[in-house]
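Q:
Got a chain?
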Amino acid sequence: MEENRDCREANAFDKELSILAHCDRQKMRSDGDLSQRGRQKVRSSSRKWPFHKGDKSFNSNGSQKERASLTCPSHQSGENSSSCLPKKKESFEVLPSKNPRLRKEQNLVLLDEDESPVEDASEESEGSLHIETTEQADEFAECMIDAKIYYPSRVDPESVEICYTDINHLAPAAYLTSPIMNFYIRYLQLQASPTNRAIRDCHFFNTYFYSKLKEAVSHKGGDKDSFFIKFRRWWKGVNIFQKSYVLIPIHEDVHWSLVIICIPDKEDESGPIILHLDSLKLHCSLSIFSNIRSFLKEEWNYLKQEVSPSDLPIAERIWQHLPRRIDDRIIPVPQQKNDYDCGLFVLFFMERFMEEAPERLKKKDLAMFGKRWFRPEEASGLRIKIRNLLKKQFQISSAECCNSKSLTSPGGCSP
């Protein structure tokens, strides 16, 4: 009896072991299925995770890999592991592995079946920001299409009128127009340091001056003197020969160049020097020199009756024979690499010259110029700078218009 009872107990114990073993195998298969489903859900929910470009994986134990921007602490598992991620419609679980080697470092590769989640997420974010910025810019441009401003203000005697549509002439490969040129010339004057004596003694003519100068010096009528007196309104109250420098932008044949008249110091015992700077060597320097000489001669004829030589920086014996003591130089300068940046080069000539010019130029100072005076890319880079400056001015004026109505919208601008 006892032996039979022991046999039955032994058989029952063996049966229990068999059942337990079967359950363990089922559980292992179940765990494998769950892990597989978890990995599938990792793939399906990875599209919009905030990774930087190039980051494609992270370690479930919290260690970083390939500079991943998203990491989870190692104690988080199961449902808690998703707490460091944005909440999604689909959730997933990272189940602990039974393999101790895998438990040390589990790499969850976040891949989408159709596309790369990392690049798409980054591009999608950048794209949305770009679209929003572009839409805002388009709305602002449409609102300002007929607007114009006066820089630096309407009450400034040398204010420059600019239409919002003038900004189109700062597009890539576009030619600069007079409003753009005159805006930046005025900007340079206002930005110049008040302690720079050379700049204080500069006189800037705008882009319309040279064509009027040619009319005045070529006038053949019997009223030539009175014609020149009317022309003098362009620099009313300014004695040209007391200035250190006179800057004149030249616009002819769809091209820009620059003339700088340098008035020497009295001790230098020399006459004015006319400099011509051309980034394409397109303008005829001889013709320009002739017109500027005639202009200086006419102004000398007018002033010598009214101004004492002691009031001028020019030596008296030079002043008495000034027309014969005028010198001129074609200045070698960096050359533009295209046919549309000439206006930018003229503005950069001005800007660079204002930064480096001595109080009074002497002939030995001409060595400051040359083909390597600056890199051509520096001049070409002004296009973006001026465009941004103008947009900022229109934004400021638009904001002020809401309060003071200082911005006018006349329904269009003449070219």
Notes: The mean pLDDT is 75. Residues 140-400 form a domain with the Adenoviral Proteinase; Chain fold (CATH 3.40.395.10). The chain is about 45% helix and 10% strand.
